[in-house]
Description:
Order of helices and strands: EHEHEHEHHEEEHEHEHHHHHEHEH
CATH architecture of the largest domain: Alpha-Beta Barrel
Keywords: Oxidoreductase
Mean pLDDT: 96
Oligomer: single chain
Domain Luciferase-like: 16-306
Largest sheet: 8 strands, parallel, barrel
Radius of gyration: 19 Å
Pfam families: Bac_luciferase (PF00296)
Helix content: 40-55%
CATH superfamily of the largest domain: Luciferase-like domain
Strand content: 15-25%
Strand order of the largest sheet: 1-2-3-4-7-8-9-11
Organism: Candidatus Marimicrobium litorale
Number of domains: 2
Structural class: alpha/beta
Shape: globular
Amino acid sequence: MPMKHKKRIALSLPAPTGTVADTIALAQQAEAQGYDDLWLADAGGLDALTLAPMILEKTKKVRVGIAVVPAYTRTPAVLSSTLTVIAEAFPQRFVPGLGTSSHTIIEGWHGLKLEKPLTRMQETVTLMRSMLAGEKTAFEGQTLKSKGYRQSPIEGVPIYLAALRPKMVEAAAEIADGVILNLFPRSVLPKIMEHVAAGAERAGKKCEDIEIVCRHMVVVTDDKAMGRDAFRGAFASYYSTPVYNKFLAWAGYEEAAREIREGWAAKDRERTAAALPDELVDEIGLIGPAEELQELMRDYANGGIHTNAVSCIYPTPDIYKATFDAFVPDNFSF
């Protein structure tokens, strides 16, 4: 597909230790060694909307994104006012991403209901666009309402949306400035890109106008078995949740999705992990020697991913360094 957005290599944060000081130090190191972007997760622990401006303040030009802020845990007014502060302080360097998150986080951690996710995201973006434009709210939707809120207008605040299955991918391409992808088998990327194009067309946009971001789960190692086990340990539980389980089935892995779902329900963690065979793990993760993974990263870029974020999922000091070093500009280019 044509590329309006440049191909970017990014590092996923926070640091393996999970501390603020180490994350800022790692951000500075990544910028110094040539990473284009730093992308924060926001799944408990360090709050990404607090940490992002701290990193921006301590770096010079690197772009900082969030993939993703759960839309259910903050109201559109809170999100709009927060994004306004960060975007005004660091223009053109901050890229906020929103997502529905998962049942584990929204219902388990926060005690909220993850209901009507597609409608919730559409209404969130509608409200935020209005708020960021400085309009006084008078909105009553199916999942959200706001009356009488107004803030000073600000231009140029992008909104990116995370998406998995077709309806959300198309909606994200239609109403957002970028689409954030995660944990998909490589074989379905062409299918995903077709839905990006369909959503863009619905809004009268060109596909190349929409930035596509992906966080890749990476382990640079010669011991693939160890790396695969690390992937299973980290993500078998993800695929047991309704959102990711349905996505895995949609991607063509119905049997694996069923086995994961049943294994998790039976509290059989070994069965759940075993339902992710080596072939499927290799389809989703980037696990292996540096040269092999560098070539895979180029394939993702050629398939339509503009911004490729490296997330080391087995962060022993040696493996983290090998993973970090494999994608610095001295060792890698698209």
